[in-house]
Amino acid sequence: MPPNGISRALKLQFGLINYENRYLTAEAFGFKVNASGISMKKKQIWTLEHDEQDGQVVFLRSHLGRYLASDKDGKITCGAEKPDPECRFLIVPQSDGRWALQSEPYLRYFGGSADYLSCFAQAIGEQELWAVHLALHPQASLLSVARKRYAHLSASDGEISVDSNIPWGVDSLVTLVYLDGKYSLKTCDSRFLSNDGKLVKENSNATSFTLELKSGKLAFKDCDGKYLTPMGPTGTLKSGRCSKPGKDELFDLEESHPQVVFQAANKRFVSVKQGVSISANQDVETDMETFQMEIDKESKKSMFRTNGGSYWTLVTHGEIQSTATEVEVNTMFDIEWRGQRVALKASNGKYVCTKKNGQLSAVSDTVGDDELFLMKLINRPMLILSGENGFVCHHKNSNTLNANRSVYDIFSLIFNDGAYNVKSVNGKFWYVSSSGLVCSDGEKPEDFFLEFPEHGRIAIKCSSGKYLRGDQGGLLSFSLLAVAIGTDYWYIIDVNKSNHTGSEDLSSHSGLWRINEGANRSSVIPSFTANMSSLSEAERHLLGLHKVVVIMLPLSLVLLVFGWIFGLVSSLASSPKLLAGSASYFLFCSLFTLTGVSIYIKYSNQAMEEFERIVSPENFPNVDVSFGWSLAAAWLSYSLEVAIGLLLMLAARITQMKGHYDSGVAIAIL
């Protein structure tokens, strides 16, 4: 159990930005270090560790688990698996919030640019200063170290108070907004904390604070050089008189767990208001009806904590009570996600149901109405999403979303009877387009379902039952070509039924392998199995063209797989020659795709001409012929292959000129 009784302080992870506005980057190839990153992605994230004997000494660990080190000549390396004496650094904070990093054994300062990094400066200059960009999820709970109390919104007083024993409910959620090297504290009602303690709508100089670190704790310094501190009996958070941070000015950021309310089939809220028994017998939501969901990292089962600090637990005869003070087997529940409702399975293998008196008991073998609960997330009115590749953010030039950005957008989450609508900053809603892309300019809300599969993770499912996924950019060309090859909407013939007397549907759509006629008829195109001797010269020519298409496009797909591997290796190696080779390879792949698509168009046109020669056109009035979306996907794949090839060529040129490879291009390859 953490000393404050709720959560552990978040591990301090951050990016370091030099005087050229470039991030310190740890490359996987050769464990090299440079200052070339233009944004904070995985390779730009560093973890701060403190020496157990000397709290002033810190170690900087890269995303690869290796430690930054400097020898007596100032040479920088990042290959040590365990911290040794040369990995010891001191943080020297500056008045503007930036850090200088000093080698503890040699007393020299670390700095430089691009590939020219060293730790040999005897004094602190502009090149030796680093701005700190926190890599934590920006939504957290704020704990005062001195008062051992949590910050929360006091809406009636228009301030943030630091007097809560536990971070309970939506009011305890604080969002850190990073802009131009400084941080602002944003409350759940979208207001910013000013240094005079007031909450304001607009971000300004008075709401911007530089971040300082002391003994592993955080301090927030305002534009006048004063520090945020809780003041008065309610702990009103505002800038005090101190120009140096003491214990009163220090804070911890703690993970903000999901907090939920449950509504049973009897339309009453699950509560602990009546004592230790957990029953669905309340009509309103209060702290007594709010439960914190904590997910075990190993078993991925969920525990539910009450506002008194106790856990739901299974007791005799299957009853559920709130008597457990520690996590154990009987406090763990499996959640089954069933669209707009959830079912809970206790450690005895039985489902939790609502009895007629409202009491919760784990006695059911199957799931019926009494075993289903509406679960509402109450402490995330503002949603910030981050994945393996970065934060979710609006695409600059379209209505889609990016999942690989170093900056984030704040979305509004609106509950709708077990589902959620997601609203963008422009007031428009998320929706899923017909092509499967998530768009952010919808006029009407569309339902999404939130699931919590493991600790610190959220899954979002759309109404079709499919889950949202954030991909990195370069795999899209492979995916598009694979979709195009595997679908049957390359060529579409639409016959208007009102203009022919037969009951049979004459419309058809075809792909590379099949022709689908009417509602249920499908036939394979016999390119390799047809008896050529029985065919006319024109038919043999058409089948020959089709053979070329079904060879060229799958071959291009296979080549793209190896191109992705080749591109990844060349990115890690930061070699201009390998990058140029990868670029040529992708352009070569694009030629296969272009050839296959072009021949298919020629094949389709000649097939239609042969069909019209055999069958009189007047027999088929009002026939609409068009190419379908499968062909469009193949064209888009070709365009992306060319774009990736050109980007790699540009990266090779930049690497050759500057002697380094920017990590941003690596993202474009993957």
Descriptive notes:
With 670 residues, this protein is an alpha+beta fold. The protein has 5 domains: 13-134, Trefoil (Trefoil (Acidic Fibroblast Growth Factor, subunit A)), CATH 2.80.10; 139-255, Trefoil (Acidic Fibroblast Growth Factor, subunit A); 259-377, Trefoil (Acidic Fibroblast Growth Factor, subunit A); 382-462, Trefoil (Acidic Fibroblast Growth Factor, subunit A) (Trefoil), CATH 2.80.10.50; 480-669, Butyryl-CoA Dehydrogenase, subunit A, domain 3, CATH 1.20.140.150. 19% of the residues lie in helices and 34% in strands. It has 5 helices and 51 strands. The strands form 18 sheets. The chain has a 6-stranded antiparallel beta sheet, with no helix packed on it. Strands 13, 14, 15, 16, 17 and 24 form a 6-stranded antiparallel beta sheet that branches. A 5-stranded antiparallel beta sheet has the order 50-49-48-47-51. Helix 1 (475-486) packs antiparallel against helix 2 (537-573), helix 1 packs antiparallel against helix 4 and helix 2 packs antiparallel against helix 5. The longest helix has 39 residues, at 576-614. The two termini are 41 Å apart. Residues 1-6 and 658-670 have low confidence and may be disordered.
Summarize the structure.
With 670 residues, this protein is α+β, with helices and mostly antiparallel strands. The protein is 19% helix and 34% strand.
User: How would a crystallographer describe the biggest sheet?
Assistant: 6 strands, antiparallel
What percentage of residues falls in helices of 4 or more residues? 10-25%
**Number of alpha- plus pi-helical segments:** 5
- CATH architecture descriptor name of the largest domain: Up-down Bundle
Question: Average pLDDT, to the nearest integer?
Answer: 86
> Which fold name fills CATH's third level, the topology of the largest domain?
Butyryl-CoA Dehydrogenase, subunit A, domain 3
Beta-strand portion reads 25-35%
Number of E strands: 51
Overall shape: it is: globular
Q: What gyration radius follows from the Cα positions, in whole Å? A: 31 Å
Can you tell me the number of structural domains? 5
CA-CA gap between termini:
41 Å
Instruction: Determine the structural class based on helices, strands and strand pairing.
Output: alpha+beta
| Strand arrangement across the biggest beta sheet | 9-8-5-4-1-12
Low-confidence stretches: 1-6, 658-670
The CATH top-level class label of the largest domain = Mainly Alpha
